[in-house]
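quick one, 167 residues, struct below
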Amino acid sequence: MILEGIENKMNGSAHIVVPTSDGSITLDLVPCDPTVHGPFIRAWSRENFAPLMERTVGWNEARNQEEQQVPERYRMVREHDDLIGCLAVREEGDALYLQTIQLVPTRRGRGYGTALLHHVERIAQARGLQRIRLRVYKENPAYDWYRRNKYRVAQVEQHSVIMEKDV
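---
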């Protein structure tokens, strides 16, 4: 189970409470069912990354169609009954590699992404891993968001950077 130790071991679900100005909201993380969630993942990956990748390394639609081939890496994010995003992680040596965090635009800027990022950090700690590692395109606004969340540049590539945070 990809998020074992943090999630309910029976069904792979998790709940994250996000403080809001008028109380809190609970986000539910549920396992990915590729048949049900694959179209959502592919559509939002295309929406979020195609324009940037077209300007840099080129967009690969065939690769996008394979996006959720390892569904155990993914957790789908629900707010009430609405599917609002996803995240994906995998172990990579002594690190938990954050493959993606995506939220639909109407849910951005509310602290949901930061709550998900902190959840990923707790997963790494629970697994005894030393750090979180990720790749982000230099032009992606998320680059500054990761820096604000104490991620440091570990390696610079032509169009992207590898960032890390010790946990």
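The beta strands are 14-20, 23-31, 74-79, 82-92, 95-103, 131-137, 152-156, 160-166.
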